[in-house]
Structures are given as C-alpha cells and as structure tokens.
Amino acid sequence: MLVWLFYKDHYKATASEPDTMLGTFCTMPAIANPWRNFLSEVIATCVLVFVILALGTQGNAFQVGPVSASTGAIGSWPVTCLIMSLGMSLGATTGYALNPARDLSPRCAHAVLPIEGKGSSGWWYSWVPVCGPMTGAALAAGLFLLVF
Length: 148
Hints:
Elements: H1 2-13, H2 18-23, H3 34-55, E1 61-64, E2 67-70, H4 77-94, H5 100-112, H6 128-147
Antiparallel strand pairs: 1-2
C-alpha cells in the first residue's frame, strides 16, 4: 500500500504501461516459461537457505583470541552478499522472490488498489514465486540434514 502511495503520481503518468506498474509490486518473469521460472526460484532459494543454515552451524565457529564466534555472528553481511550474488546470477529471469511474502502480499495489494490503467495482477504466474521458494527451502533443509 505504501508503494502505491509513493508512486501514485508515476502511475498516473504511466497509465498506458500496466506491466511497469505491476513490476513495482511483485515479481514477473522476463521470459514467461513457468517451469523454468519455477526452477530458478527453487535453485536460488535452496542455495540461500542452505548457506544461511550452514553459516549458523557450530562447525563454522572461529576463534580470535579469547573470543569464539560463528560466521553468523558477523551479522547480515554474508547473507547480504549471497542475496546480491543470487540476484545478479539468477534474478533476471524471475525477479527472484526468494520468499513467498515478497510476492504474494504485494500482488494482492495490486489486485485491490484502485490504480487507473493497472491491468492484470498476473495471477497466472503467482504460483511460481510462492511454490518455488517453498520447494527450494524444503530441499535446502533436507540437504542440510544430509550434509550436517
């Protein structure tokens, strides 16, 4: 809803570009191939969740003088770098949702907001950024249990 308020003047100026408006709310594919887009979301989320789980394991602890910490203790920097690299390598195909909440709630907002000329909310594609990350996260958890 805040996106809508922020971009309201821009939406009026681009009423003839509904895909551009939708892109400010949710992810859509550059080339629509739902199964390949789904695979992209699965792979990206699987890598993200697996690395996050691995960063937090006790096996990744290090010792600096009297202080012992895991790589997860250095804050969000490793995860930020990972998300950036996933976005640069896999994000162009789908907009890399990586999380169902990143796409579904804004898509619902797009559907109900009174935006002139907004066009479709892309519900035909909405299963990809929801099911892909959930599948990828489940695979990552299973892989993590197998490896660690």
